[in-house]
Write a structure and sequence with these properties.
CATH superfamily: Alpha/Beta hydrolase fold, catalytic domain
Shape: globular
Radius of gyration: 19 Å
Structural class: alpha/beta
Order of helices and strands: HHEEEEHHEHEHEHHEHHEH
Strand content: 15-25%
Distance between the termini: 34 Å
Number of strands: 9
CATH architecture: 3-Layer(aba) Sandwich
């Protein structure tokens, strides 16, 4: 874990433990939404969708890996994206390819997957187009509320819709997709699948926040936002006053929409039995343990199957996530139509 991520983990863990609460909140069900409240984010999305994302930069790192810079109307900024081509791409110019989205964690960037794992080599023999988009400094890939501003950044639309258009135009992306992510990217993977039913054949979360309204989780999310010197309420508003908006972005509250999606979920218990060489990461992993169990219990109650790996110890860090990605590959491959 880098120094920046260690500091972030410590800040989040300290903020959570400072609440003096355990993660044992009762399940949360999405509250009814007024027509005006529901229409506001939709109107912003429709307005931004009228504009077209543009590739403004392209840099090839090797024969299979290219970094793009995409001007995103949804986010209102130019964002980096790493794309890794399948080995057979050039030899099959008429073929389309399924797309695997790999999402970064908090306080990291779009290079994390290739920096921390052997994903390029691991996927070399798989017929899949792999894309690693930026989720911004917090690593939370969502449509930010930002006090109802029409200019609020919408990383969800960028990653789910805008980016796909670029991939189809430039790299012959097909229609089958899967998504996986670590930490806040794990949240994004399940949120994307639930908020866009049928779009992703599979979704995998490694140590993700899967119940955003569980007791203590708003504190964790607010700490992540504040760590980047942003106002915590800019994410989805006040947890109390804008509870409906929080629920609209909560995988737990939207779990019913995951029916038919291949799911892989992993979570460590952190301490005790954690990585004492990474105490902050072990503590942070432990704070997510109860909400992950609650999420899987919700899936069970709804009759939605998932491959789940709860393991003792572990830290909120890449050594565990590398293993979990490979363990989840059969689920992802099936969702991509590769098995």
């Amino acid at each position: 874990m880098t120094r920046k991520r260690r500091c972030a983990a410590l800040a989040v863990t300290t903020a959570l433990l400072g609440t003096g609460v355990a993660l044992t909140a009762p399940p949360t069900i999405a509250a009814p939404v007024s027509s005006a409240e529901a229409a506001a984010p939709v109107a912003r999305t429709v307005a931004k969708a009228a504009a077209t994302p543009t590739v403004v930069g392209e840099r090839w790192l090797d024969a299979r890996t290219v970094d793009l810079t995409i001007a995103s109307p949804a986010v209102g900024a130019s964002l980096p994206v790493r794309v890794v081509l399948p080995t057979g791409y050039a030899a099959q110019p008429d073929r389309t390819w399924p797309v695997l989205h790999l999402l970064q964690g908090a306080h990291d960037d779009y290079t994390s997957w290739t920096r921390e794992t052997d994903v390029v080599d691991f996927l070399a023999g798989q017929d899949v187009l792999t894309v690693m988009p930026s989720s911004g400094p917090t690593g939370i890939p969502t449509d930010w509320w930002n006090y109802g501003s029409a200019d609020a950044p919408d990383y969800e639309t960028f990653q789910v819709d805008e980016l796909m258009g670029v991939l189809q135009q430039r790299f012959r992306a097909g229609t089958k997709r899967a998504v996986a992510g670590v930490s806040t990217g794990g949240y994004g993977a399940l949120a994307f699948a639930a908020r866009h039913p049928g779009t992703f054949g599979a979704a995998a979360s490694y140590s993700g926040i899967l119940d955003t309204t569980a007791l203590g989780m708003p504190t964790v999310l607010n700490a992540i936002v504040a760590r980047e010197l942003l106002l915590p309420l800019s994410l989805w508003g006040s947890y109390l006053l804008n509870r409906d908006n929080w629920n609209r972005h909560n995988p737990y509250a939207l779990a019913r929409a995951l029916k038919g999606t291949g799911l892989y979920l992993s979570q460590g218990s952190g301490l005790p039995g954690g990585d004492f060489g990474n105490l902050e990461g072990a503590l942070l992993e432990g704070t997510l343990w109860a909400q992950a169990h609650r999420f899987t219990a919700q899936l069970d109650a709804l009759g939605i199957p998932a491959q789940v790996h709860f393991y003792s110890g572990g830290a909120h860090a890449w050594p565990n996530w590398r293993q979990e990605f490979k363990a989840s590959w059969p689920t992802l491959a099936k969702g991509l139509g590769l098995s």
